[in-house]
Amino acid sequence: MPSILYSTTCYISNDFYRLRIYVDDGNNYSDLVSPKNIKLATDSLDFTATSIPIDHIKPSFTRLNFELLNEKKPNNNIPTTIPLKYLLNVQQTTSLPKNSYRNFSTSLPTPSLETSSRMISLTSSPILEQSEERSRIMLTPNSSQAMFKRRQFSFRRFLSSFSNTDSDVVLLYKTLIKIKYIDVSNSFQWNIKSLELEMDSEDIANELYINLNSCLSTLEQRPHRLLAFVNPLSGKGRARYVYDKKVLPVFQEANIFVDTIYTERANHAQEYIVNEMLDDYDGLICVGGDGMFAELCHGLLLRTARDEQINIDDPHVNIIRPNLRIGIIPAGSTDAVVFGTTGLNDPITSALQIIVGESLLIDITTVHNENGFVRFMATMLAYGFFGDIIHQSDNWRCLGPLRYDLAGFCQFLRHTSYHTELTITLSSHDSVEICHPQTITSINNGSKTSIVSSDCQKLINSSNSTLTEMNSMNKSFDTIGKLPTSNLGFCRQNCETCAEEKQTNRNKDQLPSQIKREGRYTTINCLNMPCRCAKSKYGMSPFVHLGDGTFDLILVKRSWRTSFLRFLWQVANDSRSIEDLPNVERYRVREVLIRPINKGQRKKAGNWACDGELISGNEIQIRVHRQALNLFASGIKLKEKQQHIDSKSETTNWFPCLRNTKKKISQESNS
């Protein structure tokens, strides 16, 4: 049974409530602030000690419970339970009744100035003197007459007002406890709501005020001091307005001190983080788009690598997770990182998750070329089509965000493909064994596939067929094409896949499963996040996990323009079954080496882009580091129906002339 720490009564919106602060039995009924029937003791004498011992408070299981004592229907606007972690702040005030003396103002003669000043004298009340520092009320003789006219008439209160007793004067005022809390009934968008609790006396209000603040002091996961970097030019110049007018007041209400730096040039934030002292801060905040987040990510990881004396130029070295967390206030054009970690690019929601102290561990990949370290990747690395768009759009910066649409249209008309060789190290999740060491090579549509496997190695396979049952090269190619569709489940809050402990294979004789792909590709994309944004409902890779130590590799082979247009259409609308397209392959990998092949001097290689920035290199190696960065984010909370999709469901065929040939090939090969 729940353990009650404190209990009292109060009025909320003229309804009589019993307020309890209790610690549940660890069943974790719900983290949502919504009405619930929680069985607590209903004894009228369950009032506990006036002060709650700090040792009895368990922040993760402490809650506030409001029980309606009137015989009325419960008010849906008043929550039954508020978890302590979602309590924002507590204030104690005194105020006048809203409808006081409203009906008697016309029939009662106006008292003299001396009488009215005696009625509302504040200096004669020692109780009101104690609350004067919290809420100072300035009264003049003229304002006292106006208040007297608005009050509802009461003979008892009117006659007692002529006496000098302090207790009668207090009857003219209400002692309030104002509670602000975070409403998370909408799992995507969080809001701030408030409750006004009218207490019976000043002493009870003081007890409740002290006890609630004692409970708030036990929330150690909350930050107390933050360093914010604001890009004034981000999001068409709206980043500064979003921070100053929306986000900063919320931090002030939560009593969080924020030091703000408005960046003046590119890499300003990265240089500051690398060179300056950050010991006084509990976290870093970036206000802007994905580029601003990349600066903080690079600065924090490079600083940690320097402090730990890690050779970042070694592609096989493991990076160390920094101690500080990064919070993201979305104010950019795409905000792919926020969409992937919270599900919505709402500045208030992101600010509230920072205040609560939510924590989300995400994977970070390192990008190396033949010369050494290039940069970290948090969202997406592209070679070919999307890299060419970034390269072309840099020449049209004067057009603003419109340059991306124009560059994409031009690259679609060009329809360029690039001869490329890839060495792919596959993930070991949801795999199938190969019990004989072998090398399998198949050629299909101009692309060559080689599987290099050792004894009892494992390859990803979403279907029930195994590689040992392959009787021809066509069957082997069809099985390889299905490798990426292993576990079709969205990465969500408290994801079981990301929570699994890292499995390390200590057997030196067992090498990682690798395949080699060679052919002409229109675009090659490595995705560490789904890359959802306003122009892509699910992102290019909806089922990539944020912290499982893998990333998705999407290969789009050379095809007709209509086939590539279908790929782009599904990326924008519904990419959950994008691997079913005949020109698309998707792999769940841990490492990949991309090597462009130029057989002629006239043929130019494609452009590389990492997190929206151009990079260079004759070959690029991408390697994932599991849960290398900690964010102020909660993850995406999905409903039960949204957690998994039916593998038999098909995406709407927007182009009836283009049939799914991959399924036909598999049916023919099985027959």
From TrEMBL:
Cited SUPFAM superfamilies: NAD kinase/diacylglycerol kinase-like
GO molecular-function terms, A-Z: ceramide kinase activity
DAGKc domain location: 221-371
Lineage top rank: taxon: Eukaryota
One Pfam family matching this protein: DAGK_cat
InterPro entries: ATP-NAD_kinase_N (IPR017438), CERK_C (IPR045363), Diacylglycerol_kinase_cat_dom (IPR001206), Lipid_Phosphate_FormReg (IPR050187), NAD/diacylglycerol_kinase_sf (IPR016064)
GO annotation terms (biological process): ceramide metabolic process
GO cellular component: membrane
Name of the protein in question: DAGKc domain-containing protein
